[in-house]
Specification:
By secondary structure, the chain is α/β, with parallel strands linked by helices. Helices cover 35% and strands 14% of the residues. The protein has helices spanning 19-26, 42-52, 80-97, 114-131, 156-166, 177-183, 187-194, 219-228; strands at 3-7, 31-33, 55-60, 101-103, 137-140, 171-176, 198-203, 234-237. It has an 8-stranded parallel barrel with strand order 1-2-3-4-5-6-7-8, surrounded by 5 helices. α3 packs parallel to α4 (114-131). The longest helix has 18 residues, at 80-97. The protein is globular and about 45 Å long.
Length: 260
C-alpha cells in the first residue's frame, strides 16, 4: 500500500505553515513534504515533526529568488557559487528533519544550450556527492512547460539519461505523475521503465492539479501498480485542494495511518 506524504506548501493552507504539521497528522498522514522551509528555524520545523510523529519525505533545496521567477541554479553556469551555498543552507534542515531526499531544481535555461547542459551535470554530481556522506539522496524532477515555461529540465528521458550516465548511488529521479502526463502521457509504461531509478513520486489530478480522485488518470489503478512494481518510497500529495483540505480527503481514507 502506498505511503502518502501531505505537501504542506499546498495542503492545509487554512492554517499557518507550522500548524500544518498538526493538521496533517490529525488527518491521518504519517509523512509530509513541502517546497521550502527556510523562512522558519530548522529546529522549529523538526520539533513539529517530532511532536506529531511525522516523517519528512522530501523538501527542495533553496531556489534563489522565487518571487522574481528563479527556480534553482543547477543549469546556470554563472550561479555555481549560489548552488554550492544552497547545499550548505539546506543541510541543517535535513539534519533537523531527518529528511533522506532533497530535490535539486534545475533553473530557467535553454536545454539546447551546451553550457547549460554541462552546468547541470556538474551541479547534479556536486550536490549528490555533497550529501552522500549524510545518507541523503538528491532527486531531479522534470517539470512541464505549461506550468513553468522555460524550465530547463522538462523531459523525463533526459532526466533518466542524467541519472544513468552519472551513476551516483544517491542520485534518483523524482517522478511527478502530473508532470509526466502533461509532458509525455503513457504514465504506466514510464513508471515501469524508470522504477529502478525513482526515488520519489508525486501526484495530482490532470489537468486541474486538484485531488487525485477524478479527471484523466485512474489513480487507484496507478496506486496498485506502484505496489506491483515494489515501490517502497513515498508518494507526495502535491496538489491544490478544491476547497478546504479536509473536505477533499475521501480518496485518502483507505490509506490513512499507513506507517512509513
Amino acid at each position: 500500500m502506498p505511503r502518502f506524504a501531505a505537501n504542506l506548501s499546498m495542503m492545509f493552507t487554512e492554517v499557518p505553515f507550522l500548524d500544518r504539521f498538526d493538521a496533517a497528522a490529525q488527518a491521518g498522514f504519517t509523512a509530509v513534504e513541502f517546497l521550502f522551509p527556510y523562512e522558519h528555524p530548522a529546529e522549529a520545523v523538526g520539533e513539529r515533526l517530532k511532536r506529531n510523529g511525522l516523517t519528512q519525505a522530501l523538501f527542495n533545496l533553496p531556489p534563489g529568488n522565487w518571487d522574481a521567477g528563479e527556480k534553482g541554479f543547477a543549469a546556470l553556469p554563472s550561479r555555481f557559487g549560489d548552488l554550492k551555498q544552497s547545499l550548505e543552507t539546506a543541510l541543517p534542515y535535513a539534519k533537523a528533519t531527518g529528511a533522506k531526499r532533497l530535490h535539486l531544481m534545475a533553473g530557467m535555461a535553454n536545454r539546447g544550450d551546451r553550457l547549460a547542459i554541462e552546468a547541470f551535470y556538474k551541479s547534479v554530481a556536486w550536490a549528490a556527492e555533497f550529501f552522500s556522506p549524510h545518507g541523503i539522496d538528491i532527486v531531479i524532477e522534470p517539470i512541464n512547460p505549461r506550468n513553468v515555461p522555460g524550465y530547463f529540465l522538462n523531459d523525463f528521458g533526459f532526466a533518466r539519461d542524467v541519472v544513468e550516465e552519472l551513476r551516483i548511488p544517491n542520485l534518483k529521479l523524482q517522478f511527478d505523475i502530473y508532470h509526466c502526463q502533461i509532458i509525455h502521457g503513457d504514465v504506466t509504461m514510464r513508471l515501469r521503465e524508470m522504477m529502478p531509478i525513482i526515488g520519489h513520486i508525486q501526484i495530482a489530478s490532470i489537468p486541474s492539479r486538484n485531488e487525485p480522485d477524478s479527471e484523466e488518470l485512474n489513480y487507484p489503478f496507478l496506486f496498485a501498480e506502484l505496489d506491483r512494481l515494489g515501490y517502497a518510497g513515498f508518494v507526495g500529495c502535491e496538489y491544490n485542494p478544491r476547497g478546504k483540505t479536509t473536505d477533499g480527503l475521501a480518496w485518502f481514507k483507505p490509506y490513512a495511518g499507513v506507517k512509513p
